[in-house]
């Protein structure tokens, strides 16, 4: 009887939290799925059910396909830059734990993650400026011609990857530092006694043991990369100030279809596609890391 009462108490205690979570998270997802199956125009009272027509139209829409390609390149580019760099930086900071500057190193790396996104993007936009930016000034000092960083579609994508990686790096390093501190010291000491150097201990002992951390960080980084919006909105705006024209991304395309073109159902179908891509890639990441762990 006491055990049953404890179970009921636990269920009732969790119900308000679960109700709020369902209202804030689950209901919007279900509503988005419903809207994606309708021709939902804000200006029209008639909102007919059209099935999968929105999804069929998506894959014939050049703007959507361009946004999908750009977003995928940015997301995987950020992942490729952030994970190895965060792992190395975290290893270096952990190695210098005894240093009185270790706290400064951690803070310096983490600050970009908590800096407001729009001011940070504006600062990077100045850095990449073709005429007044310090990056081109540095390149010209070494005899390298100046580049139109924010006016070339390919270079603009690279600039966005740099900005997103700069922001994501601090969080990834922090999580990896937690993982390094939880590793058993005895394994590193045994490897050192066997003659393994610092790089060998890092690569053959630390990296395999940090696979669960790598899985978590890679999933979070990839999801964040596919949700890129403000970086492209600010950084890749054209010379007339129109936002994101050089690099079109999925979230920007959704917002334009929803609030500028009033095609809410069509924008909802884009959101569903984005959700499906993120879920599939997350499952693939789980599968790959589990297979490597078994080997």
The structure class reads: mainly alpha
Taking the alpha carbons of the first and last residues, their distance comes to 48 Å
Number of continuous helical runs: 13
Helix content: over 70%
* Contiguous runs where pLDDT drops below 50 for at least 5 residues: 239-244
Largest sheet: none
Order of helices and strands: HHHHHHHHHHHHH
CATH superfamily of the largest domain: MetI-like
CATH topology of the largest domain, what is it called? MetI-like fold
Number of domains: 2
**Cα shape:** flat
Could you please describe the fold and organization of this structure?
The model is unreliable at 239-244 (pLDDT under 50). The chain folds into 2 domains: 1-35, no CATH class; 50-294, MetI-like fold (Orthogonal Bundle). It is 75% helix and 0% strand. With 295 residues, the protein is mainly α. It has 13 helices and no strands. Helix 4 (102-114) packs across helix 7, helix 7 (153-182) packs antiparallel against helix 10 (211-226) and helix 12 runs antiparallel to helix 13 (264-294).
